[in-house]
Amino acid sequence: TDLEEAHALKSLVDYYGSQTKAAKRLGIPQNTISSKLSLLKLAPELQKDLVTGARKVEHVRNLGKLSAEEQRAKADERAEAARKKAETESRR
Q1: What is the pTM of this model?
Q2: What are the angstrom distances between the C-alpha of 59 and each of 13, 51, 56, 81, 88?
Q3: In this predicted structure, what is the pLDDT of residue 90?
Q4: Which long-range contacts (CB under 8 A, 24 or more apart) does 14-23 make?
Q5: Where are the alpha helices (DSSP H) in the chain?
Q6: 3-state secondary structure of 15
Q7: Residue 31 and residue 10: Cα distance in Å, rounded?
Q8: Any idea which fold 2-90 has?
Q9: 57-90 residues labelled b (16+ CB within 10 A) or e (exposed)
Q10: CA–CA dist 49, 28 (Å, integer)
Q11: Cβ(27)–Cβ(77) under 8 Å?
Q12: First to last CA, the chain
């Protein structure tokens, strides 16, 4: 899962000493690592939702700096926007 990948990347960042060094070693952009690590800052409820598939990564990415309540509200808002967009596109 994305959350498991985030935990693995965290271990590598700790091992190599920085996101930049880990990214270089893995051959991936540093911002990819940063984005994945942001999942570790999510409220436990949202992390669980990721694991169970109740939420998509794109709905919760970069919400870790918000309070747990704000994270849920913003994730719900993003999910609803994605649902409406998909619904609109399916009508075309």
Answers
A1: 0.82
A2: 25, 13, 5, 10, 18
A3: 87
A4: none
A5: 2-16, 19-26, 30-37, 44-52, 57-60, 68-90
A6: helix
A7: 13
A8: Arc Repressor Mutant, subunit A (1.10.10)
A9: bebbbebeebeeeebbebbeebbeeeeeeeeeee
A10: 26
A11: no
A12: 33
Token duo for residue 46: 């949202």
Q: Which amino acid is at 57?
A: V
Residues in the chain: 92
Q: What is the DSSP secondary structure assignment for residue 28, as one 8-state letter? A: S
Q: Which residue in this structure is represented by tokens 């994605």?
A: 82
Token digits for 54? 């109740």
Please give the chain's pLDDT, 92 residues, in tens: 899 999 999 999 999 999 999 999 999 999 999 999 999 999 999 999 999 999 999 889 889 889 999 999 999 999 999 999 998 988 87
